[in-house]
């Protein structure tokens, strides 16, 4: 083909410039041939390309972007390598106590074993372990912290007299460990609190408040195996601490704004009151306990309501064994009269509350009789 001036059109500089411009604008070939085209393009073509109208020139920005960011076909090896670099795998310990964490190609394996109290061995060196006990409880090394918590458990089981002088400090650090975001540390601290309850019983009451708060929270606010450990520790608390001392500690949480805390506290109260016995219930104040149970009977969560029903049945049984005497009669010769359970509830509770209590206790009692 020849142009109007008689020259070869295909070999003309302008045609070559347009051809290279189209090549640059091609998404498929731009990244492959751009560098070679800049080297092989005739000097005259480059000069003529600059003479083209601005609207017909290749996009300079796009060309620069292509040069700055060459296209690389993603391969499985590249993608996998980048994921391996950015992935940090944090695996919480399973119930057999294995914990694994890795970052990149580095793998760290740490073992935390949850040992039941009856399987804990005695300390090899009591004096040495006691000297480093508080430092270990304050350590930021979570593996060392778990080991030290287990040593506290060993002290509680085999050498509780050694902890007597530092018990307040130990409890404070155990509470701190319960707040640790690592679940292994949290569960070990909860297990430690259960052994402390068993070892020290009523002597722990003065230091109980912060422990009780954390156990109530952890019983519903954490991973399942942590919640289960907290539930077990709360049961141990009601077993090893006297109800007379424990009930006043629990009562404020029955009015907590969080319904789950109220429910857990109600369950503790329901488990603790029967340990008072009939005379103990009477001495503590059966009217006071009945009012507590009736207030939980209409609570939000079914756990609270079920705990209240269980407590009311216990109180009804205790009352019928030792009923309250009615006021003295006008005639001195009349035999003393006693209040029935219905009369007792009506005289100590608001009308609606008394009706709710009587409905629960009568229905439950009828169910027991029909089941005999």
Could you characterize what this model shows?
The protein is mainly α and 372 residues long. It has 20 helices and three strands. It has helices at residues 13-25, 30-40, 43-51, 60-68, 76-86, 126-131, 133-137, 142-158, 160-163, 167-178, 183-200, 208-218, 224-240, 243-250, 259-272, 277-284, 286-296, 302-321, 341-348, 351-371; strands at residues 88-91, 98-103, 106-111.
Give the CA-CA distance, first to last residue.
114 Å
User: Which sheet architecture does the biggest sheet show?
Assistant: 3 strands, antiparallel
Low-confidence stretches: 1-7, 27-41, 60-108, 368-372
Approximate shape: flat
Task: Give a short overview.
The protein is mainly alpha-helical. It is 63% helix and 4% strand. The protein has a three-stranded antiparallel sheet.
Which key phrases capture this entry?
single chain, 372 residues, mainly alpha, 3-stranded antiparallel β-sheet, 20 helices, 63% helix, flat
Topology:
Elements lengths: L12 H13 L4 H11 L2 H9 L8 H9 L7 H11 L1 E4 L6 E6 L2 E6 L14 H6 L1 H5 L4 H17 L1 H4 L3 H12 L4 H18 L7 H11 L5 H17 L2 H8 L8 H14 L4 H8 L1 H11 L5 H20 L19 H8 L2 H21 L1
Antiparallel strand pairs: 1-2, 2-3
């Amino acid at each position: 083909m020849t142009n109007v001036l008689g020259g070869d059109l295909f070999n003309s500089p302008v045609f070559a410039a347009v051809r290279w411009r189209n090549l640059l604008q091609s998404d498929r070939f731009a990244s492959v041939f751009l560098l070679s085209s800049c080297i092989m393009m005739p000097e005259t073509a480059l000069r003529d390309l600059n003479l083209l109208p601005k609207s017909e020139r290749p996009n300079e920005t796009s060309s620069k972007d292509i040069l700055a960011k060459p296209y690389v076909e993603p391969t499985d090896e590249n993608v996998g390598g980048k994921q391996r670099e950015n992935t940090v795998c944090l695996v919480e310990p399973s119930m057999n106590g294995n914990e694994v964490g890795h970052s990149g190609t580095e793998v760290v394996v740490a073992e935390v074993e949850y040992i039941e109290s009856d399987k804990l061995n005695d300390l090899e060196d009591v004096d040495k372990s006691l000297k480093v006990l508080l430092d270990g409880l304050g350590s930021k090394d979570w593996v060392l912290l778990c080991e030290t918590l287990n040593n506290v458990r060993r002290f509680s089981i085999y050498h509780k007299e050694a902890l007597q002088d530092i018990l307040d400090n130990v409890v404070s650090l155990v509470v701190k460990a319960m707040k640790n975001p690592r679940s292994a540390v949290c569960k070990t601290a909860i297990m430690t609190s259960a052994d402390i309850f068993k070892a020290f019983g009523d002597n722990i009451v003065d230091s109980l408040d912060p422990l009780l708060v954390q156990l109530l929270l952890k019983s519903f606010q954490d991973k399942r195996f942590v919640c289960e450990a907290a539930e077990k520790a709360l049961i141990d608390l009601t077993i090893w601490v006297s109800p007379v001392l424990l009930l006043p500690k629990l009562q404020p949480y029955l009015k907590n704004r969080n319904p789950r805390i109220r429910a857990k506290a109600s369950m503790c109260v329901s488990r603790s009151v029967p340990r008072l016995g009939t005379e103990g219930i009477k001495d503590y104040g059966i009217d006071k306990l009945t009012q507590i149970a009736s207030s939980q009977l209409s609570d939000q969560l079914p756990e609270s309501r079920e705990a209240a029903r269980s407590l009311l049945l216990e109180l009804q049984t205790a009352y019928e064994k030792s009923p309250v005497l009615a006021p003295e009669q006008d005639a001195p010769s009349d035999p003393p009269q006693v209040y029935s359970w219905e009369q007792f509830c009506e005289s100590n509770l608001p009308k609606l509350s008394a009706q709710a209590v009587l409905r629960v206790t009568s229905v439950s009692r009828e169910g027991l009789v029909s089941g005999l």
